[in-house]
Write a structure and sequence with these properties.
The chain is an alpha/beta fold. Helix content is 44%, strand content 15%. The protein folds into two domains: 196 residues, Rossmann fold, CATH 3.40.50; 95 residues, UDP-galactose 4-epimerase, domain 1 (Alpha-Beta Complex). The chain starts with a strand and ends in a 9-residue tail after the last helix.
Length: 324
């Protein structure tokens, strides 16, 4: 990785990945792109920014050639809840964008990182300790695009030699950028509402168990899998990874250790609940641990403390009062 392009660079993952890549590779070697311009307060911080529609191959190719890009982190996509509301648009963006990125990568010798998701699984997938290689029959358009994307990346590697790699992310939690329409957004929303109002109305049932990950670990996974020794990689693409596992009720209890007056209630959204219920309860990430030494740093308690500390500074909220 010497010259890097990050598509969807203003999104939840991209906002933090770009910073980490610039620290690792140099600010002048990482180009951020998105379909929208950065907000005014961030525009001044952007050394290299390109307005790019990833479904436009010529536009994408021009940026890759002009900046001599050798690695593309392709993050531009519609997330689960938004994709289910706009399935036709989701297919065009998620699959059309990936296809064009892979085509540009094939023509210009670029490596590609493309994230998949727990959304690539469905009701017929084993829910506990979901294997790396197992049945994948998702019931959402988001999941369909993720399975198809995994297969397309593998095809471009085996057929054309494109070094395409990726991971299956669980729910992601970040204080830097707001959530972007995913089913696991409740976790981020809960932190904001706990600090602002000491109250949150959750759209999932209290015992909905899902794997989750704090964004610093997600960024670490993106970089580590792309830097991994290719001779060790058996799968190369769509590695199961996870860091922690909890329900909305358990997250609320962890927050209550620091915000004792926090109250949670539930008003279930049937669409997002159905999506969450179709996903695994817990992933087996042994392949990632064995093939490129995946090892997360944050668990529920350390993530909760760090999220609250950073959000308090961001929101200007008074310090939380820990009950521990």
């Amino acid at each position: 990785m010497e010259r890097i392009l990050v598509t969807g660079g203003l999104g939840q993952i991209g906002s933090e990945l770009v910073v980490a890549l610039r620290q690792r590779c140099g600010a002048g070697n990482v180009v951020t792109s998105d379909i929208r311009m950065p907000p005014s307060e961030r525009l001044a911080e952007e050394q290299l920014f390109e307005l790019v529609d990833c479904t436009n191959r010529d536009q994408l190719q021009e940026v890759v050639v002009r900046h001599r890009i050798d690695t593309i982190f392709h993050l531009a996509a519609l997330l689960s809840a938004v994709a289910e509301d706009k399935p036709q648009v989701a297919w065009e963006i998620n699959m059309g964008g990936l296809y064009r990125v892979l085509e540009v990568a094939r023509r210009h010798g670029c490596a590609v990182f493309h994230p998949s998701s727990i959304g690539a699984f469905g009701d017929s997938t084993p829910a506990l300790d979901t294997p790396q290689d197992t049945i994948q029959r998702p019931s959402t358009m988001y999941g369909v695009t993720k399975v198809a994307g995994e297969l397309l990346c593998d095809y471009y590697y085996s057929r054309f030699g494109v070094d395409a790699r990726g991971v299956r992310f669980p729910g992601l939690i970040s204080w830097v950028a707001p959530p972007g329409g995913g089913t696991t957004d409740y976790a981020v929303e809960m932190f904001y509402q706990a600090l602002r109002y000491q109250h949150y109305t959750c759209f999932l049932e209290p015992d909905t168990r899902l794997d989750m990950m704090y964004m610093p670990d997600a960024v670490k996974a993106c970089i580590d899998v792309m830097a991994a020794d290719p001779s060790r990689l058996v799968h190369r693409n769509a590695f199961n990874i996870t860091a922690m596992n909890f329900t909305p009720e358990e997250l609320a209890a962890a927050i209550r250790k620091h915000v004792p007056d926090f109250v949670i209630e539930y008003r279930v959204d049937p669409v997002r609940q159905a999506i969450a219920s179709s996903w695994p309860d817990r992933l087996d990430d042994a392949a990632a641990r064995q093939e490129w030494d995946w090892n997360p740093e944050f668990d529920l308690d350390t993530m909760t403390r760090d999220m609250l500390d950073n959000l308090q500074r961001k929101l200007g909220a008074p310090p939380s009062q820990s009950s521990s």
